[in-house]
Write a structure and sequence with these properties.
Order of helices and strands: EHHHHHHEHEHHEHEEH
Strand order of the largest sheet: 3-2-1-4-5-6
CATH topology of the largest domain: Rossmann fold
Number of strands: 6
Largest sheet: 6 strands, parallel
Helix content: 40-55%
Number of helices: 11
Distance between the termini: 5 Å
Shape: elongated
Structural class: alpha/beta
Number of domains: 2
CATH architecture of the largest domain: 3-Layer(aba) Sandwich
CATH superfamily of the largest domain: HAD superfamily/HAD-like
Radius of gyration: 19 Å
Length: 238
């Protein structure tokens, strides 16, 4: 029997959209104003090393959340540019809020799925955040009129660690007052969503974006292509 369902956010509920180019442009403009001798290649290289997780393994190895302010300060240190605390805070807020100018669309059937599940189960969200913090993601959820479906929201910038660390799953289920054995997590990343959920003794549904499941280290309990397929799977578990 399932009593609680937790969802990943990016590429599970939200379509993945990259805001890297416009963030890099903002940073480059601010830095070039301070030091016109810096090349755009140097700025881009430092941006990529501090702001982007270039591969999934690197992300998994960085368990503790890296805040946007820390990333930006590291970038400035790399290229030896000085800014005041006021300037840093202003730029960081612009970087974090940038998504609100163009919120990511929902993936197909997300609202339909939540409308079907929310009356019957406790619903949680467990999301790793990059540059966009939980306070902004909540506004994006509200923009799509789905915030009301969630009984708890867990963001890595608010809890301090990324999945697959057990703390996000533990905190979500504690807030929902449901044991792991009666809970199921839905997400698209094997190394964070599925590994984290299975290690915490939850069931797991994988939103499949990989061609060959035989290569997976940890197998999900169920595999779906469309999020609405989860409704039927969970109904069968009752």
């Amino acid at each position: 029997m399932i009593k609680a369902i937790t969802f990943d956010l990016w590429n599970t509920l939200f379509e993945n959209i990259s805001y890297s180019d416009i963030r890099l442009k903002l940073i480059s403009n601010k830095i070039e104003f301070k030091n016109k001798n810096l090349s755009s290649d140097n700025i881009k290289e430092s941006y990529e090393s501090n702001f982007l997780f270039l591969n999934p393994e690197e992300k998994v190895n960085k368990i503790h959340h890296v805040f946007t302010e820390k990333r930006f300060i590291n970038l400035l240190s790399d290229i030896n540019v000085k800014m005041s605390n006021t300037e840093i805070i202003e730029i960081v807020k612009k970087l974090e809020d940038m998504m609100l100018n163009n919120p990511p669309p929902l993936k197909p059937n997300v609202k339909k799925t939540l409308e079907s599940l929310a009356p019957k189960y406790k619903i949680g969200l467990i999301s790793d955040t990059g540059i966009t913090p939980g306070r902004v993601l909540k506004q994006a959820l509200e923009h799509h009129e789905i915030l009301q479906f969630f009984d708890t929201l867990i963001f890595s910038d608010e809890i301090g660690v990324y999945k697959p660390h057990p703390l996000p799953f533990q905190t979500a289920l504690k807030n929902l007052a449901v044991p792991a054995e009666l809970s199921i997590h839905i997400g698209d990343l094997i190394d964070t969503d599925i590994v984290g959920a299975k290690n915490f003794n939850m069931s797991a549904i994988w939103v499949n974006n990989e061609p060959n499941i035989e290569l997976l280290k940890i197998k999900p309990d169920y595999i779906i292509k469309d999020i609405y397929e989860a409704v039927g799977i969970i109904a069968q578990l009752q």
